[in-house]
Amino acid sequence: MQNETQEWAAGQEPIIVFEQVSKKFPGKTALRYVSFTIPRGEIIGVIGTNGSGKSTLLKLMAGLHRPSTGRVLVDGVSAGRLSCRDVVFLSERDVYYPMYSVEKSVNFYSSLYADFDPQKAMDLVRAFDLDPAQHLDNMSKGHRSRLKIALALARQVPLIVMDEPLSGLDPLVRESIIRTLISFIDMEKQTLVMTTHEVDEIEPLLDRVILVREGELIAFQRVEHIHAENGMKLVVG
Ligand SMILES: Nc1ncnc2c1ncn2[C@@H]1O[C@H](COP(=O)(O)OP(=O)(O)OP(=O)(O)O)[C@@H](O)[C@H]1O
């Protein structure tokens, strides 16, 4: 697979630019000279085997890591200067207040973030079959994952970054959850970037794929181009 040359329509500046980005941790180079440009209004999947650098890539986009070399721009701003108003980052970790109910969590988030839309959050709660009155410490891990996604999607920000949003979800509901998730994204104004190991389920819903292997960008392509070159399946390993 090869990387594509991009052409952008006038006035359609990209939401994310990576220019020769490397990220080094003590004793480990997680990413090496990664460059790509993500247009607005797309669904992007970041795939690769364990330890290939996916989460590091997402944290750089969200401004949670600074590049060791190179430059990351989000909406024209250096990622190091981003605030929580620009990007939502949904981490793999389960962060919640166990004593709160679903509805109280929505109200709490509404008080935290000026761009939080409580009506949209409650619509998502219903779409994900959650009980607004249920307390989080009584909820299953899968239901807490749904709530976590609902709270992230209710923010009106240009970039939503999700690290493994499907982890902890029953394989039988993953596809319907991801379809619901995508249906709530405002494609005129928002871009979604997510990592996943569930490539088969998610692939039909993606516009583009970033494939990383051992810290290197192997491909950044539209899904249909990958199909044309490799048949119907993405190859992760
Ligand atoms: N804070 C850190 N300090 C040291 N090494 C780190 C740190 N964060 C990540 N790494 C290392 O960088 C490499 C890439 O990690 P990363 O978490 O980005 O991979 P990943 O593709 O998301 O993996 P997984 O699929 O298992 O979540 C790994 O070898 C990891 O151990």
UniProtKB/TrEMBL annotation:
Coiled coil (residue ranges): none
Gene3D superfamilies the record matches: P-loop containing nucleotide triphosphate hydrolases
Taxonomy, superkingdom: Bacteria
Claim: ATP-binding is one of the keywords in the record: yes
Domain ABC transporter: 16-235
InterPro entries on file: AAA+_ATPase (IPR003593), ABC_transporter-like_ATP-bd (IPR003439), P-loop_NTPase (IPR027417)
The name this protein goes by in its record: ABC transporter ATP-binding protein
